[in-house]
Write a sequence for this structure.
């Protein structure tokens, strides 16, 4: 017998599960039955694709039995793939998912109250310890002659030893604790299976003893009713895949329950779409949009949420090619009638049928989003609050659907609260307005307070506020919207739009002089200094050349490791009517002019949400000016 310790993250997870994580302990049965179903899925798939297991014959099923009383047990048995010695240690002794480690690292009190988190991170087996004082796992991998038994109380270690099992598969024996004894009950088990696992594609059988009393009411010599005990084995699930059912026979609650039970979510989805496609390519899709963004949506190693079936045979649930990355938040099922059963992941990426299904699924989802945006703005706002960022990714990664995505993404606005579409902006454009104006970089409040906005507001021009880092990436791929050019107000190219057609103001001699003086004072800290026609109350602002990335974008690229990005120096626009600029114009003190000009530049950078390169030097210069 081997005794091993759990890895640190498993011990942490077990403590959370046992002491605080779940408020509805009953979901342990959902998680364990789901694992059994997955094991059968895997064996069915390997019996088609793996030479060593090809044509492996078995009658897929899940069996549940229980014993009542003080030493109550609950047994869940499947004849799926089973596990080898090493797989037992790997699957039950460690957490391979980096998402789970991140989950543990980020866990806070609010998350601890969520009773559906475990399933989202692929470690549902450990939920058994909520209701069991000890757990035994007896397993035999298909094709192997040796079975193994894993035993643990969930208190830091486990043992593994050889065992006996006739066929492949896994048996879980839960020695129930006081709180778990209630689940050693026929009625309780049936109700939980109906509630959480009725859709499981394989039959679930419950074994129990049924007492039959004499129909004539006869009694024995002691006066007790005469009874016989009959051992019963009954199937307790309908064993029908919901997505295969006719839509007319399903209600919202059917769809919602299926979603919650399959995707470990306590809340109903925002919405869903169910499609059966017939014709040259036949397939069924059932897609859900979670009410809250998946925990790992922002991670590169996110877990995909769509399962692929072929003729109801499970193929995979971790292929990121089933939908484009920007739709990684979608949950659901694709079931194809035309893919070969032995399709591999490599073939999937190049398969014509899969490509057709993928493209049609994307169009269907985007079409559903657009329909909701037009017919149910309140629901669409909830959707945008969660998924605006990934949708924006599609603007530069999915050229084929770019026009549709342009109608779906939303931005904040200088003229109203909430989200604004390009279509709404276009409809509200002022008379004579030539472009769609936007500002990127920095936090939302910083951008809304930008001195650059004043001149556009004065003209009655709305400005789109784009505070997300991704906005800087995607905006370059959007040259125009319905033939109206997009222009960044924090770049030099949009200034001419503020001039009236008959306005051709030239710099005065005095303005040229102060521009020259500040340019000399700043030297190579800026690419240029110009007199501004769009500043109202502020002395100065920084912009960049029309073809250069914004200051914030430069910072983002360097943080991403692109150290070879050449520094695009800012252009300092100055308001020659401002008292501070006039102070420089009237001064012959070169040192004072240099200090004041550098402080102006630093303040202008701060107004754009960018810290000065040397905050200490900036503070010293500011203190020097204050002392004078």
């Amino acid at each position: 017998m081997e005794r091993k310790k759990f890895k640190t993250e498993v011990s942490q997870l077990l403590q959370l599960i046992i002491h605080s994580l779940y408020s509805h302990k009953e979901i342990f049965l959902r998680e364990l039955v789901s694992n059994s179903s997955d094991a059968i899925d895997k064996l069915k798939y390997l019996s088609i694709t793996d030479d060593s297991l090809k044509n492996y014959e078995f009658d897929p099923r899940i069996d549940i039995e229980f014993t009542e009383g003080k030493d109550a047990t609950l047994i869940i048995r499947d004849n799926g793939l089973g596990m080898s010695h090493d797989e037992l240690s790997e699957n039950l002794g460690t957490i391979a998912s980096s998402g789970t480690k991140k989950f543990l690292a980020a866990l806070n009190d609010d998350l601890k109250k969520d009773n559906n988190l475990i399933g989202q991170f692929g470690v549902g087996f450990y939920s058994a310890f909520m209701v069991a004082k000890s757990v035994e796992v007896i397993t035999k991998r298909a094709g192997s002659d040796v079975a193994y038994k894993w035993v643990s109380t969930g208190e830091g270690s486990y043992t593994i030893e050889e065992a006996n099992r006739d066929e492949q598969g896994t048996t879980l024996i839960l020695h129930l604790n006081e709180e778990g004894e209630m689940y050693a009950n026929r009625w309780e088990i049936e109700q939980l299976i109906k509630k959480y696992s009725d859709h499981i594609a394989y039959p679930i059988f419950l074994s129990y003893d049924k007492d039959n009393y004499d129909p004539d009411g006869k009694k024995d010599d002691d006066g007790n009713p005469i009874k016989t005990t009959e051992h019963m084995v009954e199937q307790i699930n309908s064993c029908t895949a919901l997505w295969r059912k006719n839509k007319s026979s399903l209600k919202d609650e059917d769809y919602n329950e299926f979603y919650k039970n399959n995707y470990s979510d306590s809340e109903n989805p925002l919405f869903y779409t169910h499609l059966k496609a017939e014709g040259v390519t036949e397939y069924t899709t059932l897609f859900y949009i979670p009410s809250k963004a998946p925990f790992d949506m922002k991670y590169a190693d996110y877990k995909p949420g769509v399962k692929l079936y072929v003729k109801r045979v499970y193929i995979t649930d971790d292929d990121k090619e089933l939908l484009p990355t920007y739709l990684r938040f979608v949950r659901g099922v694709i079931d194809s009638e035309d893919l070969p059963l032995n399709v591999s992941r490599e073939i999937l990426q190049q398969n014509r049928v899969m490509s057709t299904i993928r493209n049609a699924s994307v169009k269907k989802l985007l079409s559903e989003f657009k329909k909701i945006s037009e017919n149910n703005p309140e629901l669409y706002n909830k959707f945008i609050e969660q998924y605006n960022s990934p949708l924006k990714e599609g603007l530069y990664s999915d050229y084929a659907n770019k026009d549709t995505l342009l109608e779906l993404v939303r931005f904040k606005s200088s003229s109203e609260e909430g989200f604004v579409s390009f279509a709404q902006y276009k409809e509200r454009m002022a008379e004579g307005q030539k472009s769609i104006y936007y500002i990127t970089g920095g936090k939302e409040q910083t951008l809304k307070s930008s001195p650059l906005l004043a001149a556009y507001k004065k003209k009655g021009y709305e400005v789109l506020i784009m505070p997300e880092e991704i906005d800087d990436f995607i905006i370059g791929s959007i040259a125009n919207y319905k033939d109206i050019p997009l222009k960044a107000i924090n770049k030099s190219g949009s200034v001419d739009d503020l001039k009236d057609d008959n306005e051709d103001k030239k710099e005065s001699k005095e303005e040229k002089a102060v521009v020259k003086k500040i340019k000399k004072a700043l030297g190579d800290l800026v690419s240029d200094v110009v007199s501004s026609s769009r500043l109202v109350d502020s002395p100065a602002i920084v912009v960049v050349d029309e073809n250069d990335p914004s200051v914030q974008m430069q910072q983002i690229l360097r943080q991403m490791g692109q150290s070879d990005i050449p520094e695009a120096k800012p252009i300092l626009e100055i308001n020659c009517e401002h008292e501070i600029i006039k102070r420089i114009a009237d001064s012959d003190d070169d040192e004072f002019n240099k200090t004041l000009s550098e402080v102006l530049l630093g303040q202008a950078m701060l107004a754009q949400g960018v810290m000065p390169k040397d905050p200490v030097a900036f503070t010293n210069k500011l203190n020097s000016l204050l002392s004078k």
